C-alpha cells in the first residue's frame, strides 16, 4: 500500500494551445475547452474520492485557473494554494509565439521534436527585440520571485526546468507530502514531465517519448522514500486519454495539406 499519494496535471487547454503556438511564459487564460477540461478533471477527482490539503501551481494564470476550477467542482475551494515560478512552463526562448506545425514545415519535424521533447537541448534564447520580451520580463509577478529578474531564464532545456524545479520540490512540496498532506500540483507540460522524470527515474533518452495531455490528472503512489510503487496512472477514460496524447504529439508535425 502506498505511503504517499500525489496528483499532478498539466493545466487545461489555453488559447495558444488551441492555436498550436509555443506559449511558454506568455500569460494566457484557459480556452473554453480548457475550462471544460479543468471542470471535468474536478468532477473526476471528486468521483474518485480525492480530498486535497494543499495545492501547488505556477505563477501563470492557466495553471492557477485550472486549480481554481478543479477545487470549485470538488467543493474544496477553501484548500490553500501556493504558487511559484519554479513550476512554470519551460522557457522556450526565441520560439515563444511561433506555430509548431509551421516550424515543422520550415525546420523539419525531427528538429521540432528535439526542441519540444529532448532533455538537454536548449532553444535559441529570447532577446530584447522579441515581441513578448517586455511583456514577460516587466511582469510584476516576477518581482516577487526568489531570484532577481536579471537571473530569470532566457531559454531552457528540460534539464534546466528540472534544475530550477528541484529546490522547490525538495524544500516546499516534499515536507508537506511527508507530513501526510494530500497534494495536487497544477502545473504545465514540461514542469510535469521534469517532475515525473525525477520521481520515476526516467532516462534522458526515454523522456522524449513522455507526452502529457491537457487537463488529465496523473496519480503517483510513492513509498516512504518517495520512490514510485508503480508507473504513473492517467485517471479517466483511457481511450480518450490516448487520443488526447496523440493530439499533443501531432502538434509538432506538418499539417497533411502542407506535406
Protein described:
The chain has 259 residues and is of the alpha/beta class. The chain contains 9 helices and 6 strands. The protein has helices at residues 15-18, 32-47, 61-74, 100-107, 109-117, 133-137, 158-178, 189-200, 238-250; strands at residues 4-10, 54-57, 81-83, 183-187, 218-222, 233-234. The protein has a 6-stranded mixed beta sheet with strand order 3-2-4-1-5-6. Helix 3 links the parallel strand 2 (54-57) and strand 3 (81-83). Helix 2 (32-47) crosses helix 3 and helix 7 packs across helix 8. It is globular and about 50 Å long. The termini are far apart. 36% of the residues are buried.
How would the blueprint of this fold be written?
Elements: E1 4-10, H1 15-18, H2 32-47, E2 54-57, H3 61-74, E3 81-83, H4 100-107, H5 109-117, H6 133-137, H7 158-178, E4 183-187, H8 189-200, E5 218-222, E6 233-234, H9 238-250
Parallel strand pairs: 1-4, 2-3, 2-4
Antiparallel strand pairs: 1-5, 5-6
Helix pairs in contact: 2-3, 4-5, 7-8
- Radius of gyration equals 18 Å
- What is the helical fraction, as a range of percent? 25-40%
How far apart, in Å, are the first and last alpha carbons? 50 Å
Strand portion, in percent?
A: 5-15%
Major β-sheet profile: 6 strands, mixed
Task: Please report the number of helical segments.
Answer: 9
Shape: globular
Alpha-beta classification = alpha/beta
Low confidence ranges:
none
**Count of individual beta strands:** 6
* Mean pLDDT, all residues: 93
Order of helices and strands: EHHEHEHHHHEHEEH
If strands are numbered along the chain, what order do they take across the biggest sheet? 3-2-4-1-5-6
Amino acid at each position: 500500500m502506498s505511503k504517499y499519494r500525489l496528483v499532478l496535471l498539466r493545466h487545461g487547454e489555453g488559447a495558444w494551445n488551441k492555436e498550436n503556438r509555443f506559449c511558454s511564459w506568455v500569460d494566457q487564460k484557459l480556452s473554453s475547452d480548457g475550462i471544460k477540461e479543468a471542470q471535468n478533471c474536478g468532477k473526476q477527482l471528486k468521483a474518485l474520492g480525492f480530498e486535497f490539503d494543499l495545492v501547488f501551481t505556477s505563477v501563470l494564470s492557466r495553471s492557477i485557473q485550472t486549480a481554481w476550477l478543479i477545487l470549485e467542482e470538488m467543493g474544496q475551494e477553501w484548500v490553500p494554494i501556493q504558487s511559484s515560478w519554479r513550476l512554470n512552463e519551460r522557457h522556450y526562448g526565441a520560439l515563444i509565439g511561433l506555430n509548431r506545425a509551421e516550424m515543422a514545415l520550415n525546420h523539419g519535424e525531427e528538429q521540432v521534436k528535439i526542441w519540444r521533447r529532448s532533455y538537454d537541448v536548449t532553444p535559441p534564447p529570447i532577446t530584447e527585440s522579441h515581441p513578448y520580451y517586455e511583456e514577460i520580463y516587466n511582469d510584476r509577478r516576477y518581482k516577487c520571485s526568489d531570484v532577481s529578474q536579471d537571473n530569470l531564464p532566457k531559454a531552457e532545456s528540460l534539464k534546466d526546468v528540472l534544475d530550477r524545479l528541484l529546490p522547490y520540490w525538495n524544500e516546499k512540496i516534499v515536507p508537506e507530502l511527508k507530513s501526510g498532506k494530500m497534494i495536487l500540483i497544477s502545473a504545465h507540460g514540461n514542469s510535469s514531465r521534469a517532475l515525473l522524470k525525477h520521481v520515476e527515474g526516467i532516462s534522458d533518452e526515454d523522456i522524449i517519448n513522455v507526452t502529457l495531455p491537457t487537463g488529465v490528472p496523473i496519480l503517483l503512489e510513492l513509498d516512504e522514500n518517495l520512490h514510485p510503487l508503480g508507473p504513473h496512472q492517467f485517471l479517466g477514460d483511457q481511450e480518450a486519454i490516448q487520443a488526447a496524447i496523440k493530439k499533443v504529439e501531432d502538434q509538432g508535425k506538418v499539417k497533411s495539406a502542407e506535406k
